[in-house]
Amino acid sequence: MIFDAKHEMIRKLVRQFAETELTTEVLDKVEETGEFPEEIVEKIPGRDVYETVSSLVSALLVVVLVFTFLVRLMGVSGPSMIPTLQDGDRLLVVNSLLCGDYRVGDIVIARKESFDDKPIVKRVIATAGQTVDIDFDLGQVYVDGELLDEDYINDYTYREEGTVFPLTVPEGEVFLMGDNRNHSNDSRDSSLGTVDTRLLIGKAVFLVFPGRDYLTEQREFGRIGLLQ
Predict the structure, then answer these.
(1) Which residue of the set 43, 77, 112, 122 is catalytic?
(2) Phi-psi region of 28 (alpha: psi -120 to 50; beta: other; left: phi over 0)
(3) pLDDT, tens only, 27-48
(4) What are the residue ranges in the chain where pLDDT is below 70?
(5) Taking a C-beta distance cutoff of 8 angstroms, is the pair 91, 207 a contact?
(6) What pTM did the predictor assign?
(7) From 12, 29, 77, 80, active-site residue
(8) Is 184 a catalytic residue?
């Protein structure tokens, strides 16, 4: 009989998964309900492995979603942001959708394929409506007539690249420059100019792993941390 066969199968499973202390009362309960008591389920071979794998898959899915829609890891290529960033630095970048309005001083990742087919890392010097002027003889940068206090630069700004100043930043755009002013191709270059904020991949907020210092050739792990 099919019904008797079902009961026999349940009894065999119980004997396989349970230990000798199981009583007739437990067996009867399994037969009546068709379900195994929790103490039996916990003894099923491979259950712990299944739960571990399931947890790992869930965690991996969360990581993939986070690094797809929220943040990403990006590398620095070249010397244009020295001394703040070194060639080979690895940065944690917040997705542009979460950045809100960009501010002067933010370190951003931009991609304008007509200028460079690879993303570039620069600092926001001015935002929409602000006027930038540069005295290339003295190497000084002015925004809205105020001299910038730039303690992050590697040298004064002597390099001209074709952009005509003074320049007022258009709506929805930003003016970018590298901290290594005389070794950076940036908004001073007329082929880049001011950059539409829609071309910004995001804001670099954390140095995850340091590249080698351009002077000492050593990795300075003390640099790991929030970017300013």
Answers:
(1) 122
(2) alpha
(3) 565 556 655 555 555 555 566 6
(4) 1-48, 50, 58-69
(5) yes
(6) 0.72
(7) 80
(8) no
| Tokens at 213, concatenated | 């210092």
DSSP string, 128-178: TT-EEEEETTTTEEEETTEEP--TT-SS------B--SSEEPPTTEEEEE-
Taking the C-alpha atoms of residue 35 and residue 29, their distance in angstroms, rounded to an integer, is: 8
Which tokens hold the place of 161?
Answer: 């690249």
Local structure of residue 212 (DSSP, 8 states): B
Beta partners for residue 196, in sequence order: 173
* C-alpha span between 166 and 131 (Å, rounded): 7
Q: Is the CB of residue 177 less than 8 Å from the CB of residue 160? A: no
Report the distance separating Cα 100 and Cα 168, nearest Å: 21
